[in-house]
Amino acid sequence: MRRHRASILPISDVRLPQCLLGSEAQLAAFAAALPPEHAARCVFAPLPEIFADARSLVHAWAGCGMAAPATGDILHLRFGSVRMARVLKGARNAAVVAEVVRAQPLASSGHPFASGLHLPAAMERIFAYAPIAVPPVRVDGTSLPVELLRPCLDADLAAVRRRRGRQSAGGLDMVSFADFDSGAWAAGPVPGVPAKSDVPMVLLPWNLDHPGSIVPDLLARLVRLQDVTAPRVRVLVLPFNYLGQTGLIRRLIAHVAAAAGDRAALAHVAIGRLTSLSSLPALRALSRTAWVEAGDPEHDWTMARMTAAGFRPLSLAGGEDRVWVEVDTRYGTLAYHPHILSLRELAALLDRTATPR
Amino acid sequence: MTDATLSAALDAAGATLCFDISPLVELQWTGIPVVAAGLAGALLTHARAHTRFFLGTDLVRTAAVQDALARGSGLALARELAAGRALDGRLKLAGRRGPSVGLFPSVKQVRRLFDIEISLFHDLSTLVLPQFHMPVNVDHHMDSLRDDLASNDLTVCVSQATADDLRAYLGVPAHRLVVAHNGTHVPPGFALDAANALAGGGEPYFLILGTREPRKNVMLVFDMLARSPALLERHRFVFAGRMGWLAEQQLLPPALKQAEEAGRVLFTGFLDQRAKFLAIAGAQATIYPSIFEGFGLPVLESLAAGTPCIASWSSAIPEAGGDVCEYFDPLSAADLERALGAMLARRAVDGRLADACRAQAARFTWDAMLGAIAAPLRKLLLARGAASPT
To answer: Looking at domain B190-361, which of 1.10.443.10, 3.60.40.10, 3.40.50.2000, 3.10.310.40 is its CATH number?
Structure first.
């Protein structure tokens, strides 16, 4: 569980665990796009659900040196997955949604928000980055107005480009699966320098709020397919959405380690995060290629964002095989049966990735 | 609404009120079992002739429930139920003159059994903050949540915050909800025991109440002590509560191990009601850092002992604490430290603080809670065509 510094923070003081992908990047890009006069009145509330009434808001707002507005005057925008949409009571609430399609679990939970198809009753509107196949509805089944947002993909990237020349040394954390330590990762930063290698690196975004993700199984197949002593590619996994969940990362590494058999294979797979966009050039220097899971509900936004950030994203669509994915989530155990690349498809992908253009 | 009118309303309708005792079977009573016990006691005081106790579809002997209430534990009750000695046959719902009323102090074990069903909702943290719960708990509550709401004629929320959550998240109409705040009660002997125990004085300490699990947020206190270790020179910090979920993540950080070895940080584990009262009464103040509560019973328990409480302003907690608590941001160790300093300063100058605490606690009684439920129940009985009580 990620820990925040306060319940309300001026938007300019928000330090995100990573800023390249997912809801964290959507929030950062939104904040960067705000005119200064609006940004000055914009605050970040990591847990809006803990506010009961105006009294608690007054307490929290005072902590950031600003007078609390009347609750009715507050517009609360919730970035992130539909399943984690929460409301600020008394405010006008809207969900900002980057999920286009959400695969339904085969075995679901009784939790009304677990499916990602329902929003709280007090939610008034959806702002979407792209047309949604099946827009979420309120928990009582009533539909909500959906308004398309002009894709706010790169206001933060543009701001960094304007500051070119002031690249910071930190801001890119990475550590191999073999060396991962969850305590150090949670405490951060973990500035890692990959060993010099002629083996190309590929980026693999991993949505932590997508329990049906094939990323763990894809990596397991990859380490079985590759020669430990002469791998075709190295992989840098980039987790996003609620990055404080180090337990998921530990489970991923254990899953891959079990598949690899030889722990030496774990040296070729790393976990990473970009905590500052000023280190984007350092990440681009490592790799320009990204594999993006086609079944990820945020696939479209991730593809667009990676392109805007100067990468060459490759959508991992289709797949001859299917895998059973059963995951213990905060909503209970959910089961999925997604498609995944077969070993021969994965081998072909390695060929395409490893061959310089 | 007074006891006389509750009794009269049930009498006029020929109704029997059946109270689900399932929370009382717990060995250690904290939270919901305490509420169930308080409400059961109020029913025995005010509507004894019209009250029956049940578990599942079985009647439970009133004497066995009274015995458990006197003990403050469900240990003997569970044993007597298992042996069959506390049971009193099946619920007799057929062939009655008037309607049956089922009152469930927590999640319903059976539904659509009574003519009128009422259940209590304590908090919606499993719905709103599932990340702070074990998945099995989330499943348990979510499987029953909607069916409990649908089968209820009236849903009782222990705070306005919980009622507001039901409206904001699930769209439950206001007219199906009633707010009945929890109560507190200090047995007569406790205050005397505390006065005797504290006569010798002792080193000043703060008492942190709560199970060690993520939602209760004791880590915030650790954070404060780690950033300001000088606090430990003037006060001891005593943590009372059993180990809960993800206990390994609630362990004292290595930087504070020395303080534990020196006795500046203490862990008592679970305390029964009497021991808890004594611990509270002897504290400079209690600290309640919870991230989310449906009410905040420990706050009330602190105030009832005349001990001020430094509490998180989250969720329903300010409803219980009113104006006498010093509130802080549950995500900010710096703000907790500020609140702690403010409370110490207040204690130093306000000689009537203990009285103010007790006065705030006195606003919340189990009788008042029963009264808040009884008023809409009377309307339900009238709507069912029962004779109007006079």
So the answer is: 3.40.50.2000
